[in-house]
Amino acid sequence: MPMTPLDTIITRLFPENLTRDKHYRSLIRNMLLTIIIVSLVPMILVSSTLYLQFRHSYQEKVSDHLRELVQKHKQNIDNYLQERLTDIRLMTARYGYEHLKEGALLQRNLDLLKEEYEKAFVDLGVVDAQGYQKAYVGPFKLADAYYGDAEWFKEVNQKGYVISDVFLGLRGLPHFIVAVRSEAEGENWFLRATIDFEAFNELVQNIRIGETGFAYILNRKGKFQTTPFEQPFPPAVIDSKAPQELWKQIFSKSGDVQVFLRKDKTGEDYVYAEAPLKNGEWLLVYQQRASDAFADLNRSFAVTTLIMALGAAGVIIMALVLSRRMVMRIAKADEEKHLMDEKVVETGKLASIGELASGVAHEINNPVAIMVEEAGWIGDILEEEEFQESKNIEELRRALAQIKTQGKRCKEITRKLLSFARKTSLSVQDIQINELVEEIAGISAQRAKYAMVEMVTRFQEGLPTVRVSLSELQQVFLNLINNALDAMEKKGGKLALSTREADGFVVVDVADTGVGIPAANLNRIFDPFFTTKAVGKGTGLGMSICYGIVENMGGRIEVKSTVDVGTTISVYIPAVKSESPEKKPNAESEGSQA
Amino acid sequence: MSLAKVLFVDDEVPFVEAMTKRLTRREMEIIPAHSGNEALEKLKENVGVEVVILDVKMPGMDGIETLREIKRRFPLVEVIMLTGHATVESAIDGMKIGAFDYLMKPSEIETLVAKVSEAAAKKREHEEKIMQARMKAITTRRA
User: Fold this and answer.
1) Residues of B with Cβ-Cβ distance to A414 under 8 angstroms
2) pTM of the full predicted structure?
3) pLDDT at residue A581, as a whole number
4) Omega of the bond prior to A228 within 30 degrees of 0, cis?
5) What is the pLDDT of residues A241-265, one digit of tens each?
6) Cα A387 from chain centroid (whole Å)
7) Which residues make Cβ contacts (< 8 Å) with residue A219, sequence separation at least 6?
8) Using 50, 70 and 90 to split pLDDT, how confident is the model at A422?
9) Which pick of A126, A244, A432, A499 has the fewest CB atoms within 10 Å?
10) What pLDDT does residue A234 have?
11) Which residues of A touch chain B, with CB atoms under 8 Å apart?
């Protein structure tokens, strides 16, 4: 399987025994992916939908604002230019060529205009039909200047009025001309005024928003008509490739303000708002860096992204923690189930062995009985007179006695086999375990003395009673004590009988300091016929019988043993619950776990 | 005169044969039977059976059933239950129903003989008592 990044993470974060197993691995992966997808997808969908909606309306708002702003300024500037034109037109209408030709009147008018508009007008001049300036007032020495070839002159001659582009002209300073045509005595004459560039420039330069928003004016050729705040990237109209088309496009919706986004050379987004001026001869351009224009939006985007990222991190961490916990629990449950299965198999094995044993015991018993009886019959016959003289009579009698003895041995074996397999319990009664153990200790005391074993008893007071068959339980403990004594036969030792209570069970520990049970044999000690004793000394049924009896009571036997140190056998017998009312809830809850 | 007239019931034919020989030698009159039904028939045919030795575990009609039937039809006949190990409880049940005693199989022949003698004595005692009671009844009626 190829290692995906997810696999790597899983391998790092989960215990090795889980990640090694293919089953758990896919379980972890599925769980992780499910949790992450189910949590993150709706979160991302909701957030991005909201964000997109917000962005859309926010951009709309910004663009509306810009449109309005540029529209207002466009009107301002248009008005400004129109007013200057009107001023001059009025002057021509009122005074006429003859009067204005006199420098004094012109000077008075200029002074009046300057008073009115402060810096708007720089100078005034009267120009004749040929383009010669007949009269001039202003700071420059331009009297008798010839304008016949100037652009503005041609235009005013044709259209009747003009507002020129900004140019340097004769004086060598940026300025622009406002002029009108008039007629006197069949001859055209012209009144021209120079508009102060600085004043006009300020009008546009003052449009400033944020850190990067500024405005400027361009003519059709793409020349600046005002000084831009900073060197701007040429706006859409002067795109070298198709200036005419774009120009047309923009002015086709004459009067409208166009708002759009465009990248500059460095790839940064700019917001442009463009509006035509002066009947489409000029273009008012406002530009601002998009990041500046949409600063609020960007901030909220950053906040949203941060929250999303934190949320996603939280979800992923949760997913890891949760799936780790879940899978570990599942693994534990699997392990327990595995152990349980083994136990069930073991119990089943013992049960079937028990059934087999009881069958064998029944079947063996009858033939043995017949054999013993037949032997008895031979014995009977031997008693007759005619055999008395036979010299082998004693030998025969001995042989018959031996048959009888071995028959009894068979009978003993079958009896034990049957009590191992016995299912129906004998009469059951409530028993105080301490009294029972005390009694059995007394019975075994003599044997213990011969085996040089010191026997001690430790009883926990106030134990609950157990409801079992007395004789069966006696059998169990006698068996265990006998085994313990056998284990200490050679060297003597100490045999401790102690009682305690644990998890709703009354426990009797039989601890010896004998030879111990090798680990290899620990699993087999409950198997019928398993014995380490010499042939004829033990049947190998003692522990199986104990096992069968205790299992029938609903208890269990636990064995702990170390070779040459000793063996502790713990017998767990279910306690009678109602006997200790104050401990009842405790006993019950523990009971349900068992 | 034999020590007792005994009906020996066991499904194991060789066992019955061996026991018949041994008990006959000890001066008992043995009638063998190999099932509960046979036992009941033999009881009907042979008047004067004093003791029944009855195996508890038999195929078909088992010892307890047979015992119940015997006690119903022949209440005065004493029954000794003979049992393997597993059937000790049923032997005890048998005694509750009215068996005289029970013995574990195989048991010492002397024990068995003693038990049979006791049972026979008990039966005779019973019969005697009944006889006396009847006689008394007859005499009192006369008087």
Assistant:
1) 84-85
2) 0.47
3) 45
4) no
5) 434 444 555 554 545 777 877 777 7
6) 100
7) A165, A166, A225, A281, A282, A283
8) low
9) A244
10) 47
11) 358, 361-362, 365-366, 368-370, 372-374, 376-377, 380, 407, 411, 414-415, 418-419, 422, 424, 426
